[in-house]
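Q: What residues go here?
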């Protein structure tokens, strides 16, 4: 399976870069992984609702223009479907059995994802009702992808 992770914003912290590098290496044996970092928009301290919409639309257009063709779209959204690690693993396994060869995970910036992205997503996925920094979400997603692989392989990583 080909997995594309599209992220608004670049990682700056070394510890996050190290974690992404480690999980990317672990995933290299089971999938083709591509991580694309896209420019985020500057958000003023006092931002109007109209400006928020404009920022989300601009970042959303960047995400959509960077997608590989015929991707199954998974938008990470706080109001999305929650599932266990086993459920996530089963979903990924099911996509493979359905012939879905390319899955794109979309991680928005500080303001989240645009309505256009959310409406086009095949799945809205939430890892929690809590809010996490979008940079950390990349690490959490990679760890869960690796965990799903290990669950599906019947390997002992998942406890």
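A:
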């Amino acid at each position: 399976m080909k997995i594309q992770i599209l992220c608004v914003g670049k990682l700056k912290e070394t510890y996050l870069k190290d974690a992404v590098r480690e999980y990317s290496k672990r995933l290299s044996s089971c999938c083709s992984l591509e991580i694309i970092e896209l420019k985020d928009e500057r958000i003023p301290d006092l931002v109007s609702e109209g400006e928020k919409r404009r920022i989300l639309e601009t970042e959303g257009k960047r995400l959509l223009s960077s997608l590989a063709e015929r991707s199954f779209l998974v938008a990470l959204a706080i109001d999305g479907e929650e599932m266990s690690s086993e459920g996530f693993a089963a979903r990924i396994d099911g996509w493979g059995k359905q012939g879905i060869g390319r899955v794109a995970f979309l991680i928005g910036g500080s303001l989240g994802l645009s309505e256009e992205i959310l409406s086009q997503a095949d799945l809205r996925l939430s890892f929690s009702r809590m809010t996490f920094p979008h940079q950390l979400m990349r690490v959490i997603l990679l760890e869960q992808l690796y965990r799903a692989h290990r669950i599906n392989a019947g390997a002992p990583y998942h406890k």
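A: Context that may help when evaluating the design: The mean pLDDT is 94. The longest strand covers residues 72-81.
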